[in-house]
Specification:
The protein is an alpha+beta fold. Helix content is 39%, strand content 24%. The protein has ten helices and nine strands. Helix 1 runs antiparallel to helix 2 and helix 1 packs parallel to helix 4. It starts with a helix and ends with a strand.
Length: 291
Amino acid sequence: MLERLNQAMERIEEQVARRAEVDVAELARLAMTSEYHFRRLFSALAGIPLSEYVRRRRLTFAGAEVLDGRRTLLEIAVRYGYGSGEAFARAFRALHGVGPGEARRTGAVLRSQPRMSFRLVVEGNSSMEYRVVEKDAFRVVGKKARVPLVHEGMNPAIADFIRGIGKDVMARVEALSDQQPEGIVGVSDDLAGSRAEGTELDYYHAVVSSAADVPEDLDSLEVPAGTWAVFESSGAFPQALQYLWRDVFTAWFPSNPYRSRPGPEILRTRLNADATQAEAELWIPVERTTV
């Protein structure tokens, strides 16, 4: 898997160097996965979205041409896909901290996005426990909010949302739980493919249910039948849960014949008395890869 990912990285470099449009479908074929999974896997491994990496590499090339001085700034902007000098200047400043005109006049120090490649680091000090479950169609039933994605630490928007739900409402929701994972769960749906910090998602404080009738004051999400990989973890809250998500995408997927598929991600969490430690069960929708 890592070898194929690195082939895709080489292709990105070729397309950026030629100032061609990066073909994500081709990259996914090289990595033997779907576009959806390739974008998510890249973001998890690289720490930035694919689109942001490509933008930074293009502006790294563009920076060299700005300092070279043989082309006008407008020519460079067009060569690297910008529709105007103003758009190019904004993007250039966002990466390099200085506008292209000033960089050319003063010979400013510019920033460079290095080429990325992936390698396997074998630590051997931990293993991931998981099981694969075939699950019939079901409903997620509870209360929903649109919240920003937070990679580390407590998510204030989710915490505020949960505090605002009445105990009587949650008692009615919990009574609808009739299948695995049992009890109140956190459900993340409609995430941005990049999974970038600050992008928004639908968060459900809810249960997994087969209920045919959902009360009008509750939100619901229909989930089709499919395959799920289920991971268990325990440790400090909330870090252990966030690390579990990270490890699934950076360690488990590259090492196993599965890829993620569209669908909600479900987290069942049980906290200790002072809410400093947690036991977690994470359900990720998956499908087998074909070789």
